[in-house]
Amino acid sequence: MSGTAAGAAPRLSTLDRFLTVWIGVAMVAGLVLGRLVPGLDDALAAVEVGSVSLPIALGLLVMMYPVLARVRYDELGRVAGDTRLLVISVVLNWVLGPALMFALAWLLLPDLPEYRTGLVVVGLARCIAMVLVWNDLACGDREAATVLVAANAVFQVLAFALLGWFYLEVLPGWLGLEQTALDVSVWSIAGSVLVFLGVPLLAGYLSRAVGERTRGRDWYESRFLPRIGPAALWGLLFTIVVLFALQGATITSRPLDVARIALPLLVYFALMWGGSMLVSRALDLDYQRATAVSFTAAGNNFELAIAVAIGVFGVTSGQALAGVVGPLVEVPALVALVHVSLWARRFYRDRDSPDVPGTSADVLHPTTPDAVPGATR
To answer: Which residue ranges are recorded for the region named Disordered (predicted)?
Structure first.
């Protein structure tokens, strides 16, 4: 973190300075509401279209819109042309990620087949939403993250069902292990991608295109973005409260099972993020792109995993519980990794860029270059 950025920190609001605390409060509030308010989980679950929960979709839209509005879409071609970056991300997300989750599920849950299957499904659902917030909080390259998330979205539609068949039926058969069938519609996956990534991406693109065309880039980045920035935090907290309220009773009534499921997830997040950062360092990626690659590889699409588990195995199944535990572990784990990432920045080369904030809170309240001169991402 640069000295100028550090000097700007005291100007942050209490809400921004204690972001980790508020995320923890939101998780606890959701669990308590789901446990104590009769029928709340059923009421929230009923507000959906197909397999898409409207409250969660609303929260993710509000959360992701400011992040995607900050992306400079005219620079995406520069990232998309970086073949090395795309290949690294595809290998981490679609080869190593699912294989690692498969191995951890079988090693740590050999006696719990339903939870094991649920974790394999979680490993196949690559993140296309919340990872953009974690990347921005860690001062990663937002254009790179947007391209990598878009690539994940395409692969998710094309490869999710195929990989599910491979990891639940083919590979276990080769290894002499128990097999499980996974019947999932490509169209339901496409619908999830459209809602959780397509809508906020289109809104962010149109905001920048119209704002720059009518008022110019300086006005858009120094006046408009700071006004919508706080919505990212409120959307994140709302999403966490709703998500945990939906599953509060289930999580709190089976603590030992939750602990068993949480262990392989914790190992998974640590290995995927840490391994991705090391690979990026070995390939001499700058900090900003290493961060984008690593958080994209470590995150999972919990909403898709839960929807698939419920649709295929039932709402009360062990597979569904494994999907529910996913965000319970992922949210605090990746928040912690944001702090680790900012600490590890000193071991990477930085890419000079005048528009990059020096602190994670700049995501929520973008700071103009005049306020933080020389800040780099």
So the answer is: 358-377
Q: For residues 43 and 50, give the distance between their C-alpha atoms in angstroms, rounded to a whole number.
A: 15
| pLDDT for the residue 17 | 64
Asked if 310 and 145 count as a contact pair (C-beta separation under 8 A), the reply is: no
Q: In this predicted model, what pLDDT tens digit does every residue of 164-189 receive, in sequence order? A: 899 999 999 999 999 887 777 777 77
pLDDT tens, position by position, 214-236: 999 999 999 999 899 888 888 88
Tokens of 136: 């921005």
Q: CA Rg, the chain, in Å?
A: 20
Sketch the domain layout of the chain as residue ranges.
38-349
Which residue pairs from 49-55 have beta carbons closer than 8 angstroms and sit at least 24 positions apart in sequence? 50/188, 50/191, 51/188, 51/191, 51/192, 51/307, 51/310, 51/311, 52/191, 52/192, 52/195, 52/303, 52/307, 53/242, 53/246, 53/303, 55/242
pLDDT at 315: 62
What is the rounded CA–CA span in Å between residue 106 and residue 102?
6
Could you give the percent of the chain with pLDDT greater than 70?
85
User: 């409207």: which residue's tokens?
Assistant: 54
| Cβ neighbour number for residue 253 with a 10 Å cutoff | 10
Between the CA of residue 110 and those of 15, 96, 116, 226, what are the distances in Å?
Answer: 43, 20, 7, 50
Give the model's confidence band at 373: pLDDT under 50 very low, under 70 low, under 90 confident, else very high.
very low
Choosing among 1.20.1530.20, 1.20.1270.360, 1.10.10.10, 2.60.40.10, the CATH entry for 38-349 is 1.20.1530.20
Taking only the tens place, the pLDDT of each residue in 111-154 is 999 999 999 999 998 887 778 889 988 999 999 998 998 888 88
Quick one: which of 213, 216, 349 has its CA closest to 285?
349
Strand partners, 53: 48
Separation CA 262–CA 14 (nearest Å): 31
Which range is most confident: 29-43, 98-112, 186-200?
98-112
Cα dist from 161 to 78, 183, 187, 348, whole Å: 31, 8, 11, 37
Q: Distance of CA 212 to CAs 107, 229, 355, Å?
A: 53, 17, 16
